[in-house]
């Protein structure tokens, strides 16, 4: 088992995302937006060529998977990622309910999602 405190590359995260199921029961009910059909597709668009400007015109691509997770302003993408990797349905349901009740902006939704689904737990599911 790999240590979840060591840095994982964006390429490693992208490889895992590509192997996950495109849809999940609870996140599959949330609107995707941004012209994507699934959150998986949205994650792939976000992560591809992250060391350059990529789809979103980034300035600095020298980041790791944890940095990406901690700075993503899309709580629904965070929920999907965790549900697709096997987080408990109860935890996902609590995150979705909290997002829908209290998430008025993308930044707030992302913060709420990360409160329920912190990086260390996500990394453990993603990389073990």
Structural commentary:
The chain has 128 residues and is mainly alpha-helical. Helix content is 54%, strand content 0%. The protein is built from seven helices and no strands. The protein has helices spanning 10-19, 39-47, 65-71, 75-84, 89-102, 106-116, 119-126. Helix 2 (39-47) packs across helix 4, helix 4 packs antiparallel against helix 5 and helix 4 (75-84) runs parallel beside helix 6 (106-116). The longest helix is centred in the C-terminal third of the chain and has 14 residues, at 89-102.
Indicate the topology.
Elements (H helix, E strand, L loop, with lengths): L9 H10 L19 H9 L17 H7 L3 H10 L4 H14 L3 H11 L2 H8 L2
Radius of gyration: 14 Å
Helix run count: 7
Helix content class: 40-55%
Report the strand count.
0
| Amount of beta strand | under 5%
Low-confidence stretches: 1-5
Distance between the termini: 6 Å
Order of helices and strands: HHHHHHH
Arithmetic mean pLDDT: 89
Overall geometric form: globular
Structure class: mainly alpha
Largest sheet: none
């Amino acid at each position: 088992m790999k240590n979840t405190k060591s840095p994982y590359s964006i390429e490693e995260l992208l490889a895992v995302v590509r192997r996950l199921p495109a849809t999940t029961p609870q996140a599959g009910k949330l609107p995707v937006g941004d012209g994507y059909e699934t959150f998986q597709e949205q994650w792939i668009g976000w992560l591809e060529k992250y060391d350059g400007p990529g789809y979103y015109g980034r300035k600095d691509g020298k980041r790791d998977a944890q940095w990406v997770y901690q700075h993503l302003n899309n709580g629904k993408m965070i929920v999907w990622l965790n549900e697709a990797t096997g987080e408990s349905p109860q935890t996902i349901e609590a995150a979705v309910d909290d997002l829908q009740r209290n998430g008025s902006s993308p930044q707030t939704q992302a913060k709420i999602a990360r409160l329920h689904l912190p990086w260390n737990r996500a990394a453990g599911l993603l990389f073990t």
